[in-house]
Amino acid sequence: MQGKVVIVGGTGGIGSALARKLAPSGRPLHLVARDAGRLSALASELGASFATADVTDPASLRSAIEAGGSSLSGLVYAVGTITLKPVSRVAPADAERDFRVNALGALAAVQAALPALRAQGAGGSIVLFSTVAVQRGFPMHASIAMAKGAVEGLTRALAAELAPEIRVNAIAPSLTRTPLAEGLTKNAAMAEAIARQHPLRRLGEPEDSASLAAFLLSPESGWITGQVIAVDGGRAALEAKG
Ligand SMILES: NC(=O)c1ccc[n+]([C@@H]2O[C@H](COP(=O)([O-])OP(=O)(O)OC[C@H]3O[C@@H](n4cnc5c(N)ncnc54)[C@H](OP(=O)(O)O)[C@@H]3O)[C@@H](O)[C@H]2O)c1
């Protein structure tokens, strides 16, 4: 049996899809988020352990991750924000919150998990989340693009520092049907218009990113580190047909 995986944001759209994908293989899971009720329901369904934390409070995040045990094989940080505003309306507090939740939270999660990842020896894997809006520029994305750009830098720096024992990669999704993106996807006409901007002509489903995260956690990706991999229906690299 492979070692325990901590999923921060484990009750979210992508985090819970990943937990559901990993659980049948018997891989032990530890879920972290804020809402104890949702955590407890999912953890009992999947036979996982869980702890509550707010990622903007590094001390609570550390103890929630440490509650996962002294030996880990994987850490996934699947927490994020979507602050879409014209740059003239981005308040310092918006940018600070985006940076705190997306970038500083990821750093604090890695720092908290590192002793347990190292305790397992070689073969550890860390998966972080960026966004399509770093590789490709979109209006209204200044604050989130800044914060996720930091996550991409963190991914490469950590991959270099933690090799060869621990691999570090990031996933960069385009718009994916999760609670985070509901403000954009709940309007069917808007969702359809955005879907058409993707060469693969649909929005992402949580399982699209969860499948890649599961692969990046597995030994099958054992020679992949320091990569930011798009799960975006081709949106960052390709022009959609008219
Ligand atoms: N969905 C998209 O379109 C999209 C696009 C690009 C990138 N991404 C990235 O993909 C990752 C996963 O996103 P998602 O769409 O699955 O998000 P989601 O459905 O909103 O899930 C977020 C998860 O994080 C937890 N969480 C949120 N704020 C937290 C906080 N302050 N402290 C602790 N836990 C917190 C939530 O649970 P609680 O509320 O109980 O805390 C939930 O478990 C994120 O990094 C996001 O930026 C998503």
Brief description of this entry?
By secondary structure, this protein is α/β, with parallel strands linked by helices. It has helices at residues 13-22, 36-46, 58-66, 92-119, 132-135, 142-162, 182-185, 188-196, 206-217; strands at 4-8, 29-33, 49-52, 72-77, 124-129, 166-173, 228-231. Helix content is 45%, strand content 16%.
What is the topology?
Layout: E1 4-8, H1 13-22, E2 29-33, H2 36-46, E3 49-52, H3 58-66, E4 72-77, H4 92-119, E5 124-129, H5 132-135, H6 142-162, E6 166-173, H7 182-185, H8 188-196, H9 206-217, E7 228-231
Parallel strand pairs: 1-2, 1-4, 2-3, 4-5, 5-6, 6-7
Helix pairs in contact: 1-9, 3-4, 4-6
Bound molecules: NADP nicotinamide-adenine-dinucleotide phosphate (NAP).
Question: Which structural traits does this protein have?
Answer:
single chain; 242 residues; alpha/beta; Rossmann fold; 7 strands; globular; binds NADP nicotinamide-adenine-dinucleotide phosphate
